[in-house]
Amino acid sequence: MARTRIPLIAGNWKMNGLKADALALAQAVAAGVRQGGWKDREVLVCPPATLVMAVAEAVRGSGLLVGGEDCHAKANGAHTGDISAEMLKDAGASHVIVGHSERRSDHGETDAIVRAKAEGAWRAGLLPIVCIGETLAEREAGKTLAVLEAQLKGSVPAGSTAATLVVAYEPVWAIGTGKTPTTPEVAAAHAHIRKVLGELMADAAGVRLLYGGSVKGSNAAELLAVADVDGALVGGAALKADEFLAIAKAA
Ligand code: PEP
User: Can you give the CATH number for the domain in which 111 is found?
Assistant: First the structure.
């Protein structure tokens, strides 16, 4: 039987937040999670690396999960400025986002690099959230499903299981733009992702597939109701506790 897909609402704070404001945001989200007392969904915040430890300590015991926004593939070594998955784990993280489109475009991260980072997450005991998504040019050229398939085949490590992998579908053109695909477009992308995962692993039916790209309180219920959407990866709206909690409530 397929593993139950508990919805995951994940906030990606990106390069935003100094300690005082970030702790206030984390504590407000944690208060909402504690009050929700949810057993049927998971809520995660991914602050910048400098804040992971402080946020993890501030929200401990609330049920709010904490993750990193990126990690290096290796555990340690001569990689100035990089952060390993082990360091994130040590700081209190349980998850890490890998292959976000901003990492792929700003830092030239290839599918092979993303796969190695996901394997690094496993080595450290973190759950990787592997991001994929097409650009506007690729969508307009009718290549969306082919791009997603190639990214999945390149970025998802061999040996992945429903317990060790989360995939986030984030159309690049929908990130931070206020634009979203139509619900049939989201459904088509997620159905294809699950089909391709089925070629890569035995229990693809249990893998959580998050949608990301301009999710907010007002559109969350509609997007989260789409077949094969098992949660959301949220950028801008994750920086406002009320807005992020509204998305979590919609899950
Ligand atoms: C993101 O960067 O992962 C994201 C989905 O951003 P936004 O919600 O702001 O579009």
Answer: 3.20.20.70
Q: Is residue 3 part of a domain?
A: no
From 175, 223, 224, 247, give the residue whose CB has the most ligand 1 atoms within 8 Å, as the site to mutate: 175
pLDDT bucket at 4, cuts 50 / 70 / 90:
confident
Please answer whether residues 234 and 11 qualify as being in contact, where contact means their C-beta atoms are separated by less than 8 angstroms.
yes
Phi and psi at 226, nearest 5°, equal -70, 140
Q: Whose CA is nearest to atom 2 of ligand 1?
A: 235
Closest residue by Cα to residue 211 from 196, 201, 198, 226: 226
Q: Let me know if residue 225 belongs to a domain.
A: yes
Number of domains forming the structure of the chain: 1
100 part of the active site: yes
Find the mean pLDDT for residues 145-155: 98
Q: Can you give the pTM of this predicted structure?
A: 0.98
Whether residue 170 lies in the annotated active site: yes
Distance CA 205, CA 179 (A): 28
Cα 115 to Cα 117: distance, rounded to the nearest angstrom: 5
- In this structure, is residue 1 part of a structural domain? no
